[in-house]
Amino acid sequence: MSERLSNYLGGRWQAGSGAGNPLFDPVLGTELARVDAGGLDLAGGFAFAREQGGAALRALGYRERAGLLAAAAKVLQANRGTYYEIATANSGTVAGDSAVDIDGGIFTLSTYARMGESLAESMGGRRTLLDGEAARLGKDPAFQSQHVLVPARGVALCINAFNFPGWGLWEKAAPALLSGVPVIVKPATATAWLTQRMVRDVVEAGVLPPGALSVVCGSPAGLLDQLQPFDLLSFTGSADTAAQLRAHAAVSRHSVRVNIEADSVNSALLLPGEAPDSEAFALLVEEVVREMTVKSGQKCTAIRRVFVPEALYDAAAEAIGARLAKVTVGNPRQAEVRMGALVSRAQLEAVRSGLARLRTAASVLHDGAGHALVDADPAVACCVGPTLLGTRDADGAALVHDTEVFGPVATVLPYRDSAHALALARRGQGSLVASLYGSDAAALGDAALALADSHGRVHVVSPEVAQSHTGHGNVMPQSIHGGPGRAGGGEELGGLRALGFYHRRSAIQAGAAVRERL
Ligand code: NAP
């Protein structure tokens, strides 16, 4: 009998009332655990979080809440080994890929602990965040308007995608808790185990006030119905689910503030003027291969489209294909395996059908089907080799600009000149990230600014940062994560900017004596 993952809601552990949905090992096919949210008192649980958790968090200052984050990070550090075991079993990831999720989550949490500490330092003895200077409202300077930022008095419902059960939890919960807002997290069913275990460890360590952090595993049914006007909804997942959430009455009628991180057809662009033996060319090749293979391409930020000058199309195809051919795929428990599995049979089918669609618009430059699986049964394991596609008709390949295959798949596309390349990148209709490769600082700077309006992040790689750049797909807590248009229109992280979502801005119009008390 596999473990039944309990829900933590209303300050207590609660089992669902149904048979539950199974979570599987995507390599071995065995059932690992079950989740079930049936029969939970959702209304009571949301009220408890709002009233008990929220009040307790708001009673603390930023410095004390930063201390809670640091204490939670310490608990997670102490249990890292267990998280790696869960990730291997439930996400089918090799250790390096598990680290992106687990250590990435702990790093993000610790970074917010440090930023909270500095914020408190900068506030001196003040408790309230001021937004700008006071502004005179008339001739008499006695009466002025001071904008303040105060913690939202609701609960943050954080709904996550399957690919980052660890990092996805903390990149949302850290800024919320630091702001003084309680969190209810709903992990994706397929990989809920890691999220549930991390919450369990932190709850059992008693480092957070009751109601500050809750977890509901299983069906999302009824969760949005609980949202009230001062609550917040932070969602990561597919564009289809995002559209349903936006249409829900909580958002459309009660103006629940919503942040959406959806899918994205990200690109990498080698600027003109680089020879096939240049460092910039080599850096592009390295990054494309890394992005295609880390977490088997199941990263919302992964490179899906690779733009190169027309004259370098063949060289790029050959260099990337040669590197991909060396990638060993299979059971992540084997030391020689570099790329593990997709998370589920459903994802395997989605990747296969997405690839079949893309193959109607592009040809295969490197075929993932040619990779024999190491210690994995192809009839059971959700493993696929990396596939590189390409087409010389970048303008006509509408499907390539529109289709996000959430797996180890990318397409090489040639461009005529810089203007053409930038126009093609924008055909992703708003992306999380684009990376630029070149050695001409002026051209790189111009291209970065030209893409900034349609990309949440532009990652510029030139030879002098070859060793120090943080990677196209790595989301650093200091930089914003999100993107306009198709990418969901959201914005997370970005250092202390993330706190804005969890605070309400209000203009206090008053005389000096009152304003001094803010
Ligand atoms: P999904 O099917 O949209 O599910 C995302 C989450 O929403 C899951 O927790 C899911 O729960 C829940 N959900 C499903 N229907 C819901 C509803 N009607 N109301 C409330 N919650 C609902 O997406 P996915 O397949 O897990 O994730 C893959 C997608 O996420 C990819 O397209 C990827 O690009 C995107 N993604 C984006 C980012 C980013 O930061 N922009 C990061 C990672 C992934 P169940 O699992 O229980 O159904």
Automatic annotation (TrEMBL):
Aldehyde dehydrogenase domain span: 21-466
Residue ranges the record marks as coiled coil: none
The organism's place on the tree of life at top rank: Bacteria
Keywords per UniProt: Oxidoreductase
Segments for region (Disordered): 466-489
Any single Pfam family the record assigns to this protein: Aldedh
Presence of keyword Oxidoreductase: yes
InterPro entries xrefs: Ald_DH/histidinol_DH (IPR016161), Ald_DH_C (IPR016163), Ald_DH_N (IPR016162), Aldehyde_DH_dom (IPR015590)
PANTHER family: ALDEHYDE DEHYDROGENASE B-RELATED
Protein name, per record: Phenylacetic acid degradation bifunctional protein PaaZ
Highest classification ranks of the organism: Bacteria, Pseudomonadati, Pseudomonadota, Betaproteobacteria, Burkholderiales
